Amino acid sequence: MKIFAALSLLFVLLAVSATSRSITIYEGGNPGQFDFYLFVQQWIYSYCGQQTCIASKEREAFTIHGLWPENSDGSYPSFCKGPSFSSSAIQDLMNQLNYDWPSLTGPNTDFWTHEWSKHGTCSLTGPITNIHDYFAAGLKVYNAYNISSSLADHGIVPSNTQSYSITSITNALINSLGNTPLLQCQNGQLSTVALCITKDLELMDCPALDGWSCSGSTIIPSTD
Ligand code: 5GP
Predict the structure, then answer these.
(1) Phi, psi dihedral angles at 103 (to 5 degrees)
(2) Is 154 annotated in the active site?
(3) Less crowded by CB within 10 Å, the N or C end of the chain?
(4) Does residue 23 have a pLDDT over 70?
């Protein structure tokens, strides 16, 4: 009877650890211990439909949310050991960051400080050796793989009335960029697109990850 109880407990513990694996966050670890990056972009009008944004920053575009170290099982490191954020390290990138990596709700430097502390500190590996490299890498990937124009090339343009199937959006991006992305939708709107990037900053196919799926069709809201 005791053996049966012990085996049952072991089974429960294994099941719990298997189901929670996908949401494991390793805080305070060493940089560079992850499988690939998720390069996450937000569609402004979907994000700003959910919270109050700074009106002058709203435009029809995907902007950068972050470059996030990620593991294939969905776990990820965060807040690693590393230097604190410093604006002076990225002075030469500031114009482009203000436009392509803005906070839509507050001061840009607060957003960059958060993204650096939570995700950037864990990214110090390979070509990313410092704060400047991290933000330059985000801008480089953003410029190399243009989601809006990849969609437009396949007739998928923002509209408040026309919806698009998730399959057509995914296929358009695979066709233009060459690799499988991940999508998130909120309230029937496409909110987020993630590209998967190797530690050498090359595009790769995204694995299926918990929390990254949309089904059916979606709207890409526009200015009208
Ligand atoms: P993360 O998703 O990188 O862990 O956290 C994003 C944090 O940045 C949140 O606390 C969010 O409130 C803040 N934030 C500031 N501006 C923005 C923005 O424009 N987009 C997003 N997604 N988060 C922002």
Answers:
(1) -85, 130
(2) no
(3) N
(4) no
